[in-house]
Amino acid sequence: MSIKREKDKSRRKMSLGTRNTLVGMSFILPNFIGFAVFVLIPVVFSFVLSFMEWDGFTEMKFAGLDNFFAIFGDRVFKASLTQTLQYSFFTVILSMAAALGLAILVNQKLKGTTFFRSAIFFPYVASVVAIGAVWKAMFMKDGGPVNVALEAVGFAEQYLPGWFSSTDWALTGVIIVSIWRNMGYFMIIYLAALQGIPSSVYEAAKIDGASKWQIFKGITFPMLTPNHFFVFMMLTINSFKTFDLIFVLTEGGPGTATTLLSTYIYDQSFSYMRFGMASAASMILFLIVGTITVVMFRMEKKFSDYM
C-alpha cells in the first residue's frame, strides 16, 4: 500500500509539473509566435537572400558573395557608411550631453520643473511626420525662423546655411533634429538615476568644501556610469537604424548627402528592386551594430569588475 501511495504522489507531482510547464508555455507561445513570424523568419530569409540575386519577380539565382563585392564597390554605399558613422557619433555624444545637462537642470527644486520635464519629453512621443514638417519649415533657407535668428545676430545673408536644401548642411540639420528628439527620453533616464543618488553623499562633499564642478566630476558623473552605458548603447543602436526621421526630412537627399545605411537599404529594395544587395547591406549593418553591442557589454562587465 505504501508503495502504491508513493507512486500516486509521484504521478501527481509529475502532472503538476507538466501543468506548470504548459501554463508557462501558454504565456510565452503567443510572443514567440509573433517574434518568429515578424523577426526571426525575416532575418533568416534576409541572410539567405544576401547570397542571392532577386528582383522580387523572377526566379532567385545563387550569387555567392557577388552582392557583397558589388556593395563595397558602390560609391553610394561607401558614402552612406561614412555618413552613418558621422551621424551616429555626433548624435550619440551630443544627445548624451544634452540629456545629462537637462536632467541636472530639471532635478533642481524650482517652480515649473514638472512642466519643463513634460515639455522636453514631448518630442520623443510626438509624430515623426509632424516633427519633420515643423523642422523643415524652421530650417527653410529664405524666411525660416532659424536663419532669421542667425541673421538677427549678425550672419550675412550669403553665409546663411541652406540646411536641408544644401549638401553641406543637410546632415548637420538632421543631427540637430535627432538630438532635439532624443534628449527628452534619455533625460528621464538620467533624472531617475540622479534622484537615486543619496543626498548624504552631496552633503558630505559640501562639508569638505568641494565645488559644484568637483561634486559633478567626483560624485555625480561616476555614479551614473551604468546609465551612461545604457544610454550610449541605446542611442548607438537607434542611430544606426534611423530611417523614419531621415525619410520625412530629406528622403536621403539632396543627392546622397543624408543617405544612411537604412535609407540605402530602402533604396536598393524598393527603388531598384535589388533585394539581394539590400539584404547584404542589412547583414553588414547587423554586424556593425552587433559588434558595437558586444564590445559595450564587455566594457561594462570589465568596468563593473574593476569597481
From TrEMBL:
Keywords: Cell membrane, Membrane, Transmembrane, Transmembrane helix, Transport. The chain crosses the membrane at residues 21-52, 87-107, 119-138, 169-194, 215-237, 275-297. GO terms for biological process: transmembrane transport. It holds the Pfam family BPD_transp_1. Residues 81-296 form the ABC transmembrane type-1 domain. It is found in: Cell membrane. The keyword Zinc does not apply. It is a multi-pass membrane protein. Belongs to the binding-protein-dependent transport system permease family. This is Lactose transport system permease protein LacF. It comes from Robinsoniella peoriensis. The gene is lacF_8.
